[in-house]
Write a structure and sequence with these properties.
It is a single chain. With about 190 residues, the chain is mainly beta. It has a six-stranded antiparallel sheet, with no helix packed on it. The protein has a five-stranded antiparallel sheet with strand order 9-8-7-10-11. The protein has a five-stranded antiparallel sheet with strand order 14-13-12-15-16, with no helix packed on it. About 15% of the residues are buried. It is found in: Cytoplasm. It comes from Streptomyces noboritoensis. Pathway: Protein biosynthesis; polypeptide chain elongation.
């Protein structure tokens, strides 16, 4: 348990019957008349939904401990992604739902941050950008280059993104894992 006076950005609270909410920002407010209160912006740990919530100053709130560890993706085992803790070499099986959109950019050997609460995997978070090889894309048509157009390209993970027309099969590109946007070529 903690008091609303002790809130910090990144702290995880257990509210509304055990749901986990991360504190995005907070502000202590002392109006001219009336009691002080704390205005917060909270993000749901699983869904990513952001809400504004106001607490009376000094109110007790339950905190939750989230264990975030960097783990290396090893391989797929059916519908499960197997991650290995690089310190203990323990293996952890994570279902597709918990991996979420990160599955689009995971290849063997990639390091991801795996967040757990009481032994349950909450989510898997990749770095903001990853480098992947273009497995297949159509060749750009001569004369189209001046328009700044894009074309579909399949990454080595099987996920499809939009890339500029000059990108060819076999090139390594940088991809934003949050938006699936092409960020640029990677010079080998």
């Amino acid at each position: 348990m903690a008091s609303t006076n002790d809130l910090k950005n990144g702290m995880v609270l257990k509210l509304d019957g055990g749901q986990l909410w991360s504190v995005v920002e907070f502000q202590h407010v002392k109006p001219g008349k009336g009691p002080a209160f704390v205005r917060t912006k909270l993000k749901h740990v699983l869904s990513g939904k952001v809400v504004d919530k106001t607490f009376n100053a000094g109110t007790k709130v339950e905190t939750a401990t989230i264990d975030r560890r960097d783990m290396q993706f090893s391989y797929m085992d059916g519908e499960y992604f197997v991650f290995m803790d690089m310190d203990t070499y323990d293996q952890l099986m994570v279902d597709r739902k918990s991996v979420g959109d990160a599955a689009n950019f995971l290849i063997e050997g990639f390091t991801a941050s795996v967040a757990q609460h009481e032994g349950e995997v909450l989510y898997v978070e990749l770095p903001a950008a990853v480098e992947l090889v273009i497995q297949e894309t159509e060749p750009g048509v001569q004369g189209d280059r001046s328009t700044g157009g894009t074309k579909p390209a399949t990454l080595e993970t099987g996920y499809q993104i939009q890339v500029p027309l000059f990108i060819t099969t076999g090139e390594k590109v940088k991809v934003d894992t949050r938006t699936s946007d092409y960020l640029g070529r990677v010079n080998s």
